[in-house]
Amino acid sequence: MRSELFEELMESVRQAVAIRRGEMKPSRLFDTDDIDVAALRERFGLSQPRFAAMLGISVGTLRNWEQGRRRPEGPAQVLLRIAARNPEVVLAAAAGAVVEGTLRETSHPRTQANCPRSRSGAPPNS
Q1: 106 falls in which pLDDT band (50, 70, 90)?
Q2: What CATH number is given for 33-102 in this structure?
Q3: What is the reported pTM?
C-alpha cells in the first residue's frame, strides 16, 4: 500500500476514534427513524402470520425485523411508516388480499392482458 493512502486511512481511523469519544463532530449524521415493528403489529392486533400476510412479506422476514436481526429497508420501511401514521390506509389496501390470515388467491400482475399466452395457457417462447 502506498504510504499516502495508508496515512489517509490512518487519519480516517483517528477521526473515527475522536468522534466516538465526543472530541470531534461528525461531518454528517444519518437519522434512521427506526420503526418498532413488533409494537406496530400489536397496535394492529394481528398475529405474526396475519401481519406478514397483510404486508406481503414472509413470517420469517417479520420475525427477523421484530427480533432485530434485520431492518426493513426501502419500500418496506416506507410501507411501515405509512402503516404507523395511517393504519386505515394499509388496512383498506390489504382488505382484498388478506382473508382469515392467509393471502387469497389473486391474479398475478402478469395476467392475460399483460402477458399474452398461447391457447395452451403457456407463456409465449416457453
Answers
A1: very low
A2: 1.10.260.40
A3: 0.53
